[in-house]
Amino acid sequence: MVHDSNMEKTSKEVSNRGLAIRLKYAFERKVEREAEHGRKYTKSLLALKMNESRQVIQQWFRSGSMDKFKALRLSEELGVTIDWLLTGRYDIDTITITTPRVKALVALFQQLEPEDQEHIYQEMLELERRKREKIDALFNLK
């Protein structure tokens, strides 16, 4: 039997730019959650908890390339689902969808690249801000 190391690599490793972007986002959320409790969370601490060097952690953040079993441990450490970390599908947190229309919108949104999701999210925030300004102007609340 011929042993193909390239084949082994593809089955054991995950790698993509989207994963690197989601990893950064999940890490930032973890930093914020820890800060809310008066604790500091750094990449050095993440490296220690993952039993990896800081350089390996930096490589994960740059390339999104890592062993899939480490990706599972990483998702647990950062408090996100493995599905979300690897694919961007499903939500980072559990959500309740109340209508078929909302379910369809969420499904379409989750198929987008993380950069496109962020762009749409920022546009929605801007629309909400403008709507509040109009309401405030109507009621002279400013």
Commentary on this structure:
It is a single chain. The protein is mainly α and 142 residues long. The protein has a domain at 5-88: 434 Repressor (Amino-terminal Domain) (Orthogonal Bundle). 70% of the residues lie in helices and 3% in strands. It has 8 helices and 2 strands; from the N terminus they run H-E-H-H-H-E-H-H-H-H. The protein has a two-stranded antiparallel ribbon with strand order 1-2. The N and C termini lie far apart (76 Å).
Please give a handful of descriptors for the protein shown.
mainly alpha, 142 residues, disordered N terminus, 8 helices, 434 Repressor (Amino-terminal Domain), two-stranded antiparallel sheet
| Class from secondary-structure proportions | mainly alpha
What is the percent of helical residues?
Answer: over 70%
Strand line-up of the largest beta sheet: 1-2
Stretches with pLDDT under 50, minimum 5 residues: 1-12
Rounded mean pLDDT score = 82
Shape: globular
Spatial extent as radius of gyration: 19 Å
**Percent of residues in beta strands:** under 5%
InterPro entries: Cro/C1-type_HTH, Lambda_DNA-bd_dom_sf
Protein name: HTH cro/C1-type domain-containing protein
Organism: Acidithiobacillus thiooxidans ATCC 19377
GO molecular function: DNA binding
Describe the SSE topology.
Layout: H1 5-12, E1 13-14, H2 17-36, H3 43-50, H4 54-63, E2 66-67, H5 68-78, H6 82-87, H7 100-111, H8 114-138
Antiparallel strand pairs: 1-2
Briefly characterize the structure.
GO terms for molecular function: DNA binding. Helix content is 70%, strand content 3%. It is mostly helical.
